[in-house]
Amino acid sequence: MTEFDWGVIWKYREALWDGMLTSLKLFAIALTGGIFFGTLLAMARLSHWKAVSAPAAGFVNLIRAIPFIMAIFWFYFLTPMIVSKFTGQQGEAVGPFTSAVVAFIMVESAYYSEIVRAGIQSIPRGQPSAAYALGMNYWQSMGHVVLPQAFRNMLPVMLTQAVILFQDTSLVYVVALKDFLGAASKAGQLTGRIVELYLFVAVVFLVICLAASWGVKRLQASLAVTR
Amino acid sequence: MSTPESPRPMIDLRHVSKWYGPFQVLKDCTTKVEKGEVVVVCGPSGSGKSTLIKAVNGLEPFQEGEIVVNGISVGDPKTNLPKLRACIGMVFQNFELFPHMSITDNLTIGQVKVLGRTREQALEKGLKLLDRVGLLSQKDKYPGQLSGGQQQRVAIARALSMDPIAMLFDEPTSALDPEMINEVLDVMVQLAREGMTMMVVTHEMGFARKVAHRVVFMDHGQIVEDCTKDEFFGTARSERAQAFLSKILHH
Q1: What pLDDT is recorded for position A98?
Q2: Helices (H), chain B
Q3: Distance of alpha carbon A4 from its chain centroid, rounded?
Q4: A118: Cβ–Cβ under 8 A, 6 or more apart, which residues?
């Protein structure tokens, strides 16, 4: 047990840092895009018009029914094909990062849409009524009255989903995109110090998730609404 | 149809019917509110009063008939409903202040976002109205920090901040503790005396006696009585209305 060599982490710090940056970048884009498109999807799903709600429901159910890793695969192979169809260029038009981003945004927007939908439905009907009675239109009622309250209610669930998303970024190893875990894995294989590196990865994930959870708790306290 | 002697009423409901699936909630309702008139709508719960008043500003769609407010047809799909609603104030049973905004923001948001007033103009107007309902000192609080009666007075001020041409009240005192009812009614009486056009769904017969011009009595989605206040409290004609009155006037 005295054989642990923590020096390898320092030695590979640059590769690990690059991997972490890739993970964080993917996480940030997927989170922002997922919440943005997820909100639009949720609004579409709650629409009175079947022509709007049915496709949204179909998309969400389809995406939620397939394994995440398959979605990543699909977009890795599909996006370049579609792009090359449109641009006429052959071969790898986008590359693993872009296709991973597309896959992540689509999958996350499906997951977030369910959270946002529940959040919107948690707001009493009288609230949008009051907004409409003041002369607001649908977008103003949503933007100023319903969503600000809904997001407050959703924060804990959104955090849970964000934590899962951050952990899921490690799935991009299947398309040979070097994220944090991928970088650690590579370093581990090169040095034979897999245990140290994986322990390190676990600790880093733990610290990040604990910090995020603490941050959201504080945010929630400062946004708390007394009814 | 309208002649100079009898201008179109401010709120004109003609043969309005509404169904929830097979269940008819409004049956051929016809009534009107003239400019400057105060009309009290009463009746047992489930009689369709709230549905009727919400139909007036298009919050509840209806299938048959016509509602014309200030010359604009509410049911017409081409009508710009937000624009119409912006000039009709509405006060709800559960106040419906926006809980995530301060009292000040509640009073200014409609003016700024809908009427396009500057924040300064809106603030001046909002605070003047807040002062009028006696709550200026509460301006930086949040709705949840106020009592029910206070919240409802803020809600009235919020509706007035839009300079409405008519006010709709949907059971404004039903969710209040008894000791808070009067502070809200006082504001409404004052408003009525200033000549505001008002349609008020309420069980407060004292309020009706004091300021109503006409009383509309509803039962099972129908308008059973539509008469002047004196006629209504004198010899309310339908048996149902008499039974209703005798029940609620005892306490």
Answers
A1: 85
A2: 49-56, 81-86, 103-113, 119-132, 148-160, 178-193, 205-211, 229-235, 239-249
A3: 35
A4: A154, A157
ipTM of the complex: 0.92
Interatomic CA distance for residues A160 and B92, integer angstroms: 36
A151 touches chain B (CB under 8 A): no
Query: Which residue of B lies nearest to A222 if distances are taken between CA atoms?
Result: B100
Cα pseudo-dihedral A170, A171, A176, A182, rounded to 10: 30
Closest-CA distance of chain B to residue A225, Å: 6
Helix (H) or strand (E) segment spanning residue A130: helix A126-133
- Contact list in B for residue A124 (CB cut-off 8 A) is 94, 96
Global pTM exceeds 0.90: no
Question: Looking at beta carbons, which residues of chain A come within 8 Å of B60?
Answer: none
Among candidate residues B180, B89, B91, the one with its CA nearest the CA of residue B135: B180
Across the interface, do B142 and A127 touch by the CB < 8 Å criterion? no
Interchain contact A129–B (C-beta under 8 A) = yes
To test the contact with chain A by mutation, choose from B69, B84, B85 the residue with the greatest count of A C-beta atoms within 10 A, namely: B85
Helices marked H in B10-69: 49-56
Whole-angstrom Cα distance, residue B107 to residue B146? 15
Contact (CB<8Å) B92/A227: no
Each residue's pLDDT tens digit, B26-65: 999 999 999 999 999 999 888 999 999 999 999 999 999 9
Query: Would you call A132 and B85 a contact, using CB atoms and an 8 Å cutoff?
Result: yes
Please name which of B231, B234, B244 lies closest in space to residue B46, comparing C-alpha atoms.
Answer: B244
**SS3 of residue B12 by DSSP:** strand
Residues of B in contact with A140 (CB under 8 A): 113-114
CATH of domain A24-178: 1.10.3720.10
C-alpha B11/C-alpha B9 separation (Å) is: 5
Residue A135 and residue B92: Cβ atoms within 8 Å? no
For the stretch B69-101, pLDDT in tens is 999 999 999 999 999 999 999 999 999 999 999
User: Using CA atoms, how far apart are residues A97 and A176, in angstroms rounded to an integer?
Assistant: 9
Domain ranges of chain A: 24-178
